[in-house]
Amino acid sequence: MPSPLESLSGPGKPMTKEPEDARDFAGLKLTASPRVTPSMRSSREVLDLDHLYVICHAEGEPWALAEGITAVPAPCLASPQWQPLQAR
User: Fold this and answer.
1) What are the pLDDT digits (tens) for 21-71?
2) How far apart are CA 37 and CA 42, in angstroms?
């Protein structure tokens, strides 16, 4: 029996756009100056995160929002510092 995933994509199969779902964007905010929210603090605690990085629509270098929470301008993600480690 073929996998259900095989019917989703592949050579010669057209790509189709999924309908948008409001849940896809829940919790997303477009801002150049993020502020720490209670949900950020709660997420850090509940998920036991050492650090939380907030991607923002800004320029420049990352900056601290609070202890353990850093705002990272989206363009910074293209720099080698933010790329996954390469296999050696």
Assistant:
1) 777 666 677 888 999 999 899 989 999 999 999 999 999 999 999 999 999
2) 9
In order of 11, 12, 30, 37, the CA distances from 26 in angstroms are 33, 34, 12, 15
- Residue the block writes with tokens 């929002």: 65
C-alpha distances (whole Å) from 86 to each of 22, 80, 81, 83 are 35, 10, 12, 8
Q: How far apart are CA 49 and CA 39, in angstroms?
A: 13
Look at the alpha carbons of 81, 77, 69, 40 in this order and tell me if their dihedral is positive or negative.
negative
Global pTM exceeds 0.90: no
